[in-house]
Specification:
With 226 residues, the chain is mostly helical. It is 62% helix and 0% strand. The protein has one domain: Vanadium-containing Chloroperoxidase, domain 1, CATH 1.20.144. It is elongated, with a radius of gyration of 21 Å.
């Protein structure tokens, strides 16, 4: 018999995410484009240079795939429901983001500002110029951490707040590394977060269809035989 994994709508993630969606909305006004980019990118340190360079990797497809595969180490997640839900929640939002990216083809900060001297960027950082909106790393991070938060056991649900902070740090890293504007990160976070919430709720509703209670089947067979 396959045991259904514990799932919930983790408010420790969802509430901060909704607050972020509301509070950050006025900040994406085009007139603040340079202000918020410069506020983050030009306030740097040697520690932050290293920290955000590696933190941004969490939003990459390879990292997300590895983390989701490692979770198969839990017996309750070695089933088709987890595999299908993980695939939908972490792939479909990314596809939406990539479609928008290729349709809009917005310039990245380096291209938008013309590579001015005031932008903080190091030689080992990727120098990106096109397909800025939305941020794919932000979509990936918010998709994954939102998904993970809803798989947390009841006694560990408070880690959902930590997951939200981690997702936000990935988004912050994209601006710090001169790869995106706040608008890009904001849009990516909404696609990832809301997309995952919608897809997860659908899969949670039909979760029973992925599990067969062998004990119930055996019991029914015994009744018929008698």
């Amino acid at each position: 018999m396959y045991k259904k994994p514990y799932t919930s709508y983790n408010l420790f993630f969802i509430i901060p995410f909704l607050i972020w969606a509301v509070v950050a909305y006025p900040m994406i006004d085009p007139k603040y484009l340079q202000y918020y980019f410069a506020l983050i990118n030009t306030h740097y340190s040697s520690f932050a240079d290293v920290f955000f360079y590696y933190a941004t990797w969490v939003g990459e497809g390879v990292t997300i795939t590895i983390i989701l595969l490692l979770l198969l180490g839990y017996s309750s997640l070695r089933n088709w429901w987890y595999f299908t839900t993980a695939l939908l929640c972490n792939v479909l939002p990314t596809i939406v983001t990539q479609i928008i990216k290729n349709t809009v083809n917005a310039p990245r900060p380096l291209k938008y500002f013309g590579e001015p001297d005031w932008i903080h960027i190091l030689p080992k950082w990727d120098r990106l110029f096109s397909y800025s909106f939305p941020s794919g790393h932000s979509t990936g991070a918010f998709s994954m951490f939102c998904f993970l938060s809803m798989l947390l056991p009841k006694k560990y649900q408070y880690f959902g707040l930590l997951f939200f902070i981690c997702a936000l740090l990935v988004g912050y890293s994209r601006i710090y590394l001169a790869a995106h504007f706040l608008q890009d990160v904001y849009a990516g976070s909404l696609i990832g977060g809301f997309g995952t919430l919608i897809l997860f709720s659908i899969m949670r509703r039909y979760q029973d269809r992925f599990f067969k209670d062998e004990d119930v089947v055996t019991a029914k067979n015994d009744v018929h035989e008698k």
